[in-house]
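Need tokens for this chain, all 315 residues.
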Amino acid sequence: MAARSEDLLPVEYFHLVFTLPAEIARIAYWNKRAVYGLLFRVSAKTVTTIADDPKRMGARVGMTSVLHTWGSALTHHPHVHMIVPGGGLSKDGNRWVACKPGFFLHVRVLSRLFRRLFIEGLLALHCEGDLNFFGDLAGLSEPQAFAAYLTPLRKNEWVVYAKPPFGGPEAVLAYLSRYTHRVAISNSRIVSADATTVAFRWKDYRIKNGERQKVMRLATPEFIRRFLIHVLPDGFHRIRHYGLLASATRKANIAKARALLGAEPVKNEDPPTAEIIPLTLREPCPDCGGQMRIIEIFRRGQKPQTRAPPRKAAA
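Here are the structure tokens for all 315 residues:
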């Protein structure tokens, strides 16, 4: 979060969501690395292409994308959440080009370009032999069958959703801190669990007016199966940065944008380090019966110092 706070600009931020149709999600189920990677690349290219159009904004924009693969009921529902500043650098890099207040880009335009680019990318993956098919989709390994499977999707509307702008950079940081490292289900949603059944709360978005919160009960093996659907391939990054926020040029682009916006650079101060006073535990040592003392406290993600085990007191 400290790293992301350095990237925030004093502008409106927008929240876009790019969702794969169910027919594509079935292909992604067996081809996570290839299809999820394509989802990242195509959604980013869609936004940068439309924003770069002089008829739209005519600016180079940046974005942070976060992959989620689940629905509220732990079903397979791949989609990308994208956080985008409301503007970008002009093509010559000498001006900050702001979008209209409260409006980023036309969702319908984004949706149709996203659809075209994704289908083209999926066909390229198929031609390169990077897709696998099983079960009732095994026949899609044939090029003609695969092309026929995609034909109806060229006419359907693909879901690209634009949420209202965030309430300032601080709200963006709060969102990222809550959602970027979220997993398919949190402990707070689990109502009960035993060897046979798991019950958890979920939200039924099909209900327009009424109570959406419901409780779902699944056989424990089915709950485990649904949870494991959302385990990503080894080394796959589910948070990525594009455009002005791409890692290679991010610092220079952010500095230039801040200068053009007249914003002061962010100064991160190291938090004061408090001396940890050794504490004692109520329970005696199970080995020698002596008093147990806390010798180190470390936060999540930190590595404890290498210490030799304490020597036993002489009898």
